[in-house]
């Protein structure tokens, strides 16, 4: 049984590699065209009506969720995975509390942008502003980004000197602290009641909005996928920059990197802060789309799910982590029939993928090589016989 | 050379197909089978039907199913379809569901939400679509204070129940009440209302957190406050170990909880520790409930209707009545629900202007736990 | 901020905290043992504990134990419970090692992979006990699986009584049993690791796996041993838990595991005495914090203390050393 899966997986990987090789062999203009076609397809997805593919839609089953709505979730999770990939995949730091940054981004737009929030009410009372006043959406985006970035630095500064495993528990604690504070600080966040009427690009949610209305989710998906594409491009540039190469050096051998003049702490902090900002921005999108958040949405389980997306997809590879994110967000929605067994299936899948393919479903080439090296070392070492 | 040519052709063809497909129509949802017959139609029910909180919500789903099934069995020419949408109680899952239901014209009404958070998140969406929501168990007070025109609930809100608890405590001459809540939307909400109601008799209070198991600090606070009554706002998971550890530590104060603890798992989970606790619930005792609901439920599901089973039934019954009355559009049904005026299983149902069930009609009973049973004590007057 | 309560009853709060922390400490041992030897976080250890509580519940249900049985019976059921829980937890830990961790170790996979695998295993175990078994057996043994997702009560095996009161600080029989039993189990483990032949093997592998192999230590057997030992400690914790709190549920492990892991890190992960110290320290800090503020700040306080301790002592209070001479 296991062997069969292994064989199947091997042929799948070979097919994947040959596709990748052929892709690389194509002339540049064809690759460009293919890329454009793919992007067009992404934008077309919420309308998906190609005969033979409609079964992919989550609303093709009874009790299924809105298709564009699920796609939006996928897009936000992809954004999260890309951000977390900077931290885990590129810099090699295990962050189990990524949800904290996500929550900070979400609460930033909620606290400053919603007329419902105590913070906005305080501003109104203090500065004699009208009852409809709140910080505009675009400014909230900036606040979310900056707050997440700052909290990344604040968390990273004392903790990044810790060794990897300690970092894991400290970040996990950080994620919990953010959630518990959001729940307990009722005077600021309305506690467990949550905050409603969080604005979108057109201001607070209202049936009068032209584009980002209450019922149709497609514009939200298009907005999210646009952000994702921009971020993919940006992170890609970063990955191939001097900073990206430094991360790689640190991940592979921190001491050697330090000897070569790459100051690990500085670059780790960079990775942490950039990852945090991306997570915060994802949280910002999440909150403005749902127009309502409460602390229960930012629990540890989701945080662990984020890490799972990155690792199952193939940490270090942007395509891999995106696929991981889409799978983990999409599959439970599409296969609601097994609703009760979702988590069981999910757990089993995680274990299986890790045992059979520790490098993830679509590994980065370099990462796969690193793992192979480790496996080879293991075989040489007599202690592991 | 030829291979690369064919590949280029393939790429171009693929791109062409994709661009062409982009022009295709959105065919996923079908919205044309709204009124197949003269009578009947389709409604949606959403809530946490799986996951950790399912135990609280499934009785309501079962109750609603029972009402629909009863109707469908009796009226072959007037079939009602109820589609279940599982949200796991998560607002982020409930919102896409709301988008789906709102965008599918064949849905004429919604039962839900079951939790206040998911209700708060989806109310504007359903309102914009002109869909009526009938909530069986979303009790947060401010849900009906937002000016939403399509939200109704067949359950008393936290305020009414807190009022009833206060009445009970006053009738028992409680002098020193210790308040505990679980910092959840439900528990904290009801406890905050109770704090307002009780005034000076509140001796002290503490907040615990969900999934907490050890309560040393809380118990020593109860002891220090020398309380004669302990009120806990929250659910079974934390209440059962809390009351048991209280008793083991020798705290004699009477334990009172709201309908979140009207749950057979509470006395069972506390293994005798919950003996003598008082539970208030806006639900009628089985022998007082109208009709054969309790017996029917027992027969269909092999257990007594837990919390909100009757409310689920009532919520569905409203739609059943609407369809029977020949209502066939969202607007007609919304008007029908607004004017609904009838005896239900859980209480007499008639909605106030804001969507709350008429406060004077809410019936709250107190129950005492004896063994693993909830023995009805008395009806609590709201004041 | 309730300083009066905290300092007025400081002795009582300390006793409460110690008895709370003793259970953390026992579970923390499992994390520490595995980490000390393999340098891996066995995230699924919390579920090893959960299985132990279900074993105790199963045993007591099978014998139809009632509340407050006569003392002879109580002792019998406690001893039997310890055996059953130790076997169940030890067996689960061993099974996890054989099924999931061994293939990964063969590939020398990085720690992150172990972590994700462990999280997956954890999910699987929780779902088996919360969903699969109730569906299969829920009707046959409702008292054991009927409401595994919500909460399952167990009989009170020993009635809680105040033994003595010193300076306004009362100590109950249960607190004493829990504390003494936990410390005794740990002393036993400490003795086993530091004084026996098997223990020497464990220390050798912890210090240097390659040299240990050259010296003829069977590494595989050592690894199996530490998983079983950690499981037995979790089983003991499960029994003490069942005696003291008398309930379980499928998701009981998560929060406790998190706390126990925090305790292990606080004390210095990989260090047995550190686990004890960390557990007790965490228990006390939590009770103090909950008294000072409210119980819903407990976790925040626990994690803030963790961060502060790690800032000043990056390897925990006692540092890491299962083999004492770890570089």
Automatic annotation (TrEMBL), chain A:
Molecular function per GO: branched-chain amino acid transmembrane transporter activity
Cellular compartment(s): Cell membrane
One Pfam family it belongs to: BPD_transp_2
Main location: membrane
InterPro entries assigned: ABC_transp_permease (IPR001851), LivM-like (IPR043428)
Topology relative to the membrane: Multi-pass membrane protein
Membrane-traversing stretches: 32-55, 67-89, 96-115, 135-157, 220-238, 269-292, 304-331, 343-362
Origin superkingdom: Bacteria
Gene Ontology cellular-component terms listed: plasma membrane
Keyword terms of this UniProt record: Cell membrane, Membrane, Transmembrane, Transmembrane helix
Keyword Transmembrane: yes
Record's protein name: Branched-chain amino acid transport system permease protein
UniProt source species: Micromonospora phaseoli
Taxonomic placement: Bacteria, Bacillati, Actinomycetota, Actinomycetes, Micromonosporales
From TrEMBL, chain B:
Signal peptide: 1-22
Stored Pfam families: Peripla_BP_6
PROSITE patterns in UniProt: PROKAR_LIPOPROTEIN
Protein name: Branched-chain amino acid transport system substrate-binding protein
Gene3D superfamilies from the UniProt entry: 3.40.50.2300
Keyword terms: Signal
Cross-referenced PANTHER family: AMINO ACID BINDING PROTEIN (PTHR47151:SF2), LEU/ILE/VAL-BINDING ABC TRANSPORTER SUBUNIT (PTHR47151)
Family: Belongs to the leucine-binding protein family.
Superkingdom of origin organism: Bacteria
The organism of origin for this protein: Micromonospora phaseoli
Automatic annotation (TrEMBL), chain C:
Keywords: Amino-acid transport, Cell inner membrane, Cell membrane, Membrane, Transmembrane, Transmembrane helix, Transport
Subcellular localization, as worded in the UniProt entry: Cell membrane
GO BP terms: D-alanine transmembrane transport; L-alanine transport; L-isoleucine import across plasma membrane
Topology versus the membrane: Multi-pass membrane protein
CDD domains membership: TM_PBP1_LivH_like
A GO cellular component annotation in the UniProt record: plasma membrane
Gene Ontology molecular function, alphabetical: L-isoleucine transmembrane transporter activity; L-leucine transmembrane transporter activity; L-phenylalanine transmembrane transporter activity; L-valine transmembrane transporter activity
Keyword Cell membrane attached: yes
Entry annotated with the keyword Transmembrane helix: yes
InterPro entries: ABC_transp_permease (IPR001851), BCAA_transport_permease (IPR052157)
Transmembrane segments: 22-41, 48-65, 71-96, 112-133, 174-193, 222-241, 247-267, 274-294, 300-319
Family, as annotated: Belongs to the binding-protein-dependent transport system permease family. LivHM subfamily.
Protein name (Swiss-Prot/TrEMBL): Branched-chain amino acid transport system permease protein
């Amino acid at each position: 049984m296991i062997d069969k899966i292994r064989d199947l997986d091997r042929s799948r990987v070979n097919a994947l590699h040959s596709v990748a090789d052929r892709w690389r062999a194509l002339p540049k203009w064809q690759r460009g065209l293919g890329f454009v076609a793919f992007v067009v397809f992404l934008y077309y997805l919420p309308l998906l009506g190609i005969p033979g593919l409609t079964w992919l839609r989550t609303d093709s089953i009874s009790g299924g969720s809105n298709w564009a709505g699920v796609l939006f979730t996928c897009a936000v999770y992809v954004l999260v995975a890309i951000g977390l990939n900077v931290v885990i995949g590129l810099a090699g730091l295990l962050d189990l509390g990524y949800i904290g940054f996500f929550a900070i981004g979400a609460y930033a737009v909620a606290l400053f942008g919603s007329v419902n929030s105590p913070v906005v009410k305080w501003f109104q009372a203090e500065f004699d502003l009208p009852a409809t006043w709140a910080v505009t959406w675009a400014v909230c985006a900036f606040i979310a980004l900056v707050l997440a970035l700052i909290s990344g630095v604040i968390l990273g500064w004392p903790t990044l000197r810790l060794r990897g495993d300690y970092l894991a528990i400290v970040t996990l604690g950080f994620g919990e602290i953010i959630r518990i504070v959001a729940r307990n600080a009722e005077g600021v966040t309305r506690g467990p009641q949550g905050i409603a009427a969080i604005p979108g690009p057109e201001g607070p949610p209202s049936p009068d909005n032209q584009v980002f209305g209450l019922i149709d989710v497609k514009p939200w998906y298009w907005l999210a996928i646009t952000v994702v594409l921009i971020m993919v491009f940006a992170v890609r540039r970063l990955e191939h920059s001097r900073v990206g190469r430094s991360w790689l050096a640190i991940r592979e051998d921190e001491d050697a990197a330090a000897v070569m003049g790459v100051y690990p702490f500085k670059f780790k902090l960079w990775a942490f802060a950039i990852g945090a900002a991306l997570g915060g921005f994802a949280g910002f999108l999440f909150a403005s789309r749902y127009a309502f958040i409460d602390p229960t949405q930012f629990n540890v389980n989701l945080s662990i799910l984020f890490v799972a997306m990155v690792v199952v997809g193939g940490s270090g590879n942007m395509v891999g982590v995106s696929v991981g994110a889409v799978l983990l967000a999409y599959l439970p929605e599409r296969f609601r029939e097994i609703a009760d067994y979702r988590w069981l299936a999910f757990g089993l899948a995680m274990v299986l993928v890790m045992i059979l393919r520790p490098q993830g479903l679509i590994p980065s080439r370099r990462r796969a090589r690193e793992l192979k090296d480790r496996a080879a070392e293991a075989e040489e070492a007599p202690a592991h016989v | 050379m030829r291979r690369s040519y064919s590949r280029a052709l393939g790429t171009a063809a693929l791109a062409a197909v994709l661009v062409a497909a982009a022009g295709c129509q959105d065919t996923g949802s079908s919205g044309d089978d709204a009124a197949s017959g003269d009578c009947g139609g389709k409604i949606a029910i959403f809530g946490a039907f799986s996951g950790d909180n399912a135990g609280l919500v499934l009785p309501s789903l079962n109750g609603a199913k029972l009402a629909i099934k009863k109707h469908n069995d009796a009226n072959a020419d007037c079939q009602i379809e109820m589609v279940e949408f599982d949200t796991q109680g998560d607002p982020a899952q409930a919102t896409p569901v709301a988008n789906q239901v709102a965008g599918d014209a064949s849905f004429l009404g919604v039962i839900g939400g079951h939790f206040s958070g998911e209700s708060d998140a989806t109310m504007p969406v359903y309102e914009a679509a002109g869909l009526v929501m009938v909530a069986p168990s979303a009790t947060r007070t401010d849900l009906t204070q937002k000016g939403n025109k399509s939200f109704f609930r067949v359950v008393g809100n936290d305020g009414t129940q807190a009022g009833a608890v206060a009445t009970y405590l006053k009738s028992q001459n409680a002098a020193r009440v210790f308040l505990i809540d679980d910092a959840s939307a439900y528990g904290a909400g009801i406890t905050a209302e109770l704090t307002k109601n009780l005034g000076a008799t509140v001796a002290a209070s503490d907040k615990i957190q969900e999934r907490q198991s050890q309560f040393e600090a809380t118990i020593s606070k109860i002891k220090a406050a020398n309380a004669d009554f302990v009120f806990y706002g929250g659910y079974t998971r934390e209440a059962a170990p809390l009351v048991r550890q209280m008793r083991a530590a020798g705290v004699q104060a009477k334990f009172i909880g709201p309908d979140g603890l009207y749950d057979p798992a509470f006395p069972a989970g506390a293994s005798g520790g919950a003996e003598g606790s008082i539970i208030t619930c806006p639900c009628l005792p089985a022998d007082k409930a109208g009709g054969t609901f309790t017996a029917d439920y027992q027969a269909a599901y092999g257990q007594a209707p837990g919390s909100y089973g009757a409310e689920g039934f009532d919520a569905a019954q409203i739609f059943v009545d609407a369809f029977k009355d020949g209502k066939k559009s969202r607007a007609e049904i919304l008007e029908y629900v607004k004017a609904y005026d009838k005896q239900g299983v859980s209480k007499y149902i008639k909605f106030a202007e804001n969507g709350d069930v008429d406060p004077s009609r809410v019936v709250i009973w107190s129950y005492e736990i004896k063994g693993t049973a909830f023995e009805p004590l008395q009806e609590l007057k709201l004041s | 901020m309730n300083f009066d309560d905290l300092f007025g009853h400081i002795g009582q709060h300390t006793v409460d905290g110690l008895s709370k922390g003793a259970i953390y400490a026992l579970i923390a041992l499992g994390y520490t043992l595995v980490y000390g030897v393999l340098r891996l976080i066995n995230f699924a250890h919390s579920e090893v504990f959960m299985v132990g509580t279900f074993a105790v519940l199963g045993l007591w249900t099978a014998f139809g134990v009632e509340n407050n049985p006569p003392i002879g019976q109580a002792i019998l059921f406690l001893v039997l419970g310890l055996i059953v829980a130790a076997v169940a937890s030890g067996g689960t830990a061993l099974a996890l090692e054989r099924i999931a961790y061994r293939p990964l170790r063969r590939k020398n996979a990085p720690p992150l992979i172990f972590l994700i695998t462990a999280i997956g295993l954890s999910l699987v175990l929780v779902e088996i006990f919360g969903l699969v078994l109730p569906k299969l057996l829920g009707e046959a043994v409702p008292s054991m699986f009927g409401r595994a997702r919500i909460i399952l009560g167990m009989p009170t095996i020993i009635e809680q009584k105040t033994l003595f009161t010193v300076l306004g600080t009362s100590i109950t029989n249960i607190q004493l049993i829990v504390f003494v039993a936990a410390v005794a189990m740990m002393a036993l483990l400490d003795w086993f690791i530091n004084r026996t032949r098997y223990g020497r093997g464990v220390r050798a592998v912890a210090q240097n796996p390659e040299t240990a192999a050259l010296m003829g230590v069977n590494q595989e057997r050592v690894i199996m041993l530490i998983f079983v030992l950690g499981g037995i400690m979790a089983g003991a914790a499960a029994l003490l838990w069942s005696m003291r709190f008398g309930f379980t549920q499928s998701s009981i492990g998560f929060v406790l595991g998190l706390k126990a892991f925090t305790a292990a890190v606080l004390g210095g992960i990989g260090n047995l005495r550190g686990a004890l110290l960390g557990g007790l320290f965490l228990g006390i800090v939590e009770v103090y914090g909950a008294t000072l503020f409210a119980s819903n700040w407990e976790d925040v306080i626990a994690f803030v203390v963790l961060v502060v301790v790690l800032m000043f002592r990056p390897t925990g209070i006692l540092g890491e050393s299962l083999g004492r001479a770890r570089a």
